[in-house]
Amino acid sequence: MKKRILYMAYILAIPLCWISCSDDDGKTVYSKEGAKTEIGRKITENSGFVGHLFKDTSYTLSAGVQACEIQCLSENGLATKLYIFEVALDTKGLTIAVSAPDNDDSKFGLQPMTLQAEAYESPTKHVLGAVNGDFFTSAGIPGGIFYRKGRGIKTVMGDEKTTFFAITKDKRAIIGSRDEFDHVKDRLWEAIGGRHRLLRNGQIEPQVNTQLEPRTCVGVTSANVVYLMVVDGRNFWNSNGMTFSDMSKVMRALGATDAINLDGGGSSTFVVCASRNNTPASFVVRNWPYDYGGQERAVANGLLIVKED
């Protein structure tokens, strides 16, 4: 009886083996070719992060502002979705501002980025896009510095991992660590805190944390171009996130010389203006925030791409 069972198992296994072997000829061939956007090309060719590019799309929000969305497999074979703003700050009428809940920085609080963007809108200032900003406490107190229109609302840097992104009074984008703050604090017009330096003078900073997470980061180039990037994570089939080192490589591939990590996890949010046909303008979230099945998390502050009339 045992011999008969083994014989039948052997007979059944033959077609399975043939199917498995024949399928090798039709397996997926991974490729970095086919980038349709300049941002997608830079990342796929120069970062060492992309193992296979599925698609990349870009759209212009205004003169000097491009948005790009990329779907790929990482070099480790993990699904990843990236969302990137490219902001040429030397463009006339274009700037980056720090947001606050209800556009009121007289007190700390929490509010989703779509509502912070909506609150900032005015007849002469139009928000084109936005990302979340600094880490924060449950009361909405930012972890790092917080400047708006030249006024230091919070000027304490925190521990040695604290970093900052700022727009100076002469409209230059700068990034710094705690040891650099005292040298530039009198020049700051808009500023926000972050954690972990990713790039310093074009060099990747060593990192201890190797966790894959949803992330938000900001990088600046020597040509006064700012890159704001959000990466979805914690969703195996959709997007697995990035490590700090991954973000460093992507920022450097885009041309950034300096970059820092902003708040991530469920806070990571990539917002674009959907319509100005109504008052106020309407805003949509393009990525998939981790909290509550894709719903926005209320955050303490963020970075707004603003076109001024």
Q: What is Rg? A: 23 Å
Task: Give start-end ranges of low-pLDDT stretches.
Answer: 1-27
Count of DSSP H/I helices? 5
For the sheet with most strands, the description reads: 12 strands, antiparallel
Gross morphology: globular
Q: Which bin fits the share of residues in helices?
A: 10-25%
Number of strands: 17
Overall structural class, as computed from helix and strand content, comes to: alpha+beta
Order of helices and strands, N to C? HHEEEEHEEEEEHEEEEHEEEE
Tell me the fraction of residues in β-strands, as a range: 35-45%
Mean pLDDT across all amino acids: 91
How many angstroms does the end-to-end distance come to? Answer: 88 Å
InterPro entries: NAGPA
GO molecular function: hydrolase activity, acting on glycosyl bonds
Protein name: Phosphodiester glycosidase family protein
Keywords: Glycosidase, Hydrolase
Structure at a glance:
By secondary structure, the chain is of the alpha+beta class. It has five helices and 17 strands. GO terms for molecular function: hydrolase activity, acting on glycosyl bonds.
Characterise the protein shown here.
The chain is α+β, with helices and mostly antiparallel strands and 309 residues long. The protein has a domain at 87-230 and 256-308. It contains 5 helices and 17 strands. It has helices at residues 2-23, 38-46, 113-120, 178-184, 244-254, and strands at 50-62, 65-74, 79-88, 94-99, 125-132, 146-148, 151-154, 162-168, 173-177, 188-200, 203-204, 215-220, 225-231, 258-261, 270-275, 282-285, 302-308. The strands form 2 sheets. Strands 1, 2, 3, 6, 7, 8, 9, 10, 11, 12, 13 and 14 form a 12-stranded antiparallel β-sheet that branches. The protein is globular and about 50 Å long. Keywords: Glycosidase, Hydrolase. This is Phosphodiester glycosidase family protein. InterPro entries: NAGPA.
